[in-house]
Amino acid sequence: MQKLFLYSIIFCGLIITGCHTAKQAQHAVKADTVNTKSPGVVLKPVDSAAILKQQLTDTLNAPLNFTTFYGRAKASLNSPQAAGNAMVYIKMKKDSIIWISVTGPLNIEGARALITPDSVKIINKLENTVQLSSINRLQQITKLPLTFNDFQNIILGKTILINGNNIEYQINKDSITVSAVNEVLKYFYSFGKTNFLLGQSMFQTTNNPTVTGANIFYSDYQQINNMQFSASRDITVTGSSPASLQLSFKEINFNQPQSFVFTISKNYKIKYE
């Protein structure tokens, strides 16, 4: 259960998406010069690839329009260290709280987490312990330099904007792919060409590719309160801790009142990290 819980948090850190303004376009498609009815007036060629890239960038840069989020997902983990199924409950209050609970067989809660912009608190009910740490703990778990806002965006399937070198767009028949690299990670993303929905995300550490890598597929998009949300996510992690995690959201809602109960029993042992 503890391993499953950690990977449920890691799921937040592995669903990495992002793009920035493109430096280079590939397979640019230009329309033929079009003459108007007025003699001597010629319209400039239209760079359809540039238009698509700008539309995608505008979509990914659009602000998050929500106050609260609730999701209930079935999680299935398979790794050399552990395997099993659980229900994962996620609640969020925009820009301030991420609350996660993992429940195993017989509806017994095994762990609960409360994440704020500067802290991480994890209750392990199987071991009667509480772990208190800074937000850097999530970076240690995921091995990624992610902030609170990054995790918030990741859960919602919202792009994390990255600043890197060699960012490239490629226009395909049914998709737009974006590849990028910075000092920490190499990224690859695939978006639907007509709806700009994320279909696949891959990343690999730059300095040591054997440490962490992931391949994530997104499907079953549902429109909830005018937001497109991927209800099915398939994650494969490679490197020193290989694992696969499937998440299937059974319930999703936005902008409904939420409570964030996080009671620490006086009998629990407190660990500081």
Summarize the structure.
The protein has helices spanning 2-14, 48-61, 136-142, 148-156; strands spanning 24-26, 68-78, 83-93, 97-103, 109-116, 119-124, 129-134, 165-171, 175-181, 185-192, 198-205, 212-224, 227-239, 243-254, 269-272.
What do these coordinates show?
By secondary structure, the chain is of the alpha+beta class. The chain has one domain: outer membrane lipoprotein receptor (LolB), chain A (Clam). The chain is built from 4 helices and 15 strands. It has a 15-stranded mixed sheet with strand order 1-8-9-10-11-12-13-14-2-3-4-5-6-7-15. A hairpin with a 3-residue loop joins strand 9 and strand 10. The protein starts with a helix and ends with a strand. Residues 9-46 have low confidence and may be disordered.
Strand and helix map with partners:
Elements: H1 2-14, E1 24-26, H2 48-61, E2 68-78, E3 83-93, E4 97-103, E5 109-116, E6 119-124, E7 129-134, H3 136-142, H4 148-156, E8 165-171, E9 175-181, E10 185-192, E11 198-205, E12 212-224, E13 227-239, E14 243-254, E15 269-272
Parallel strand pairs: 1-8, 7-15
Antiparallel strand pairs: 2-3, 2-14, 3-4, 4-5, 5-6, 6-7, 8-9, 9-10, 10-11, 11-12, 12-13, 13-14
Order of strands across the widest beta sheet?
Answer: 1-8-9-10-11-12-13-14-2-3-4-5-6-7-15
Largest sheet: 15 strands, mixed
**Distance separating the two termini:** 21 Å
The SS-based structural class is alpha+beta
Encode the helix/strand succession as letters: HEHEEEEEEHHEEEEEEEE
Number of strands: 15
Count of helical segments? 4
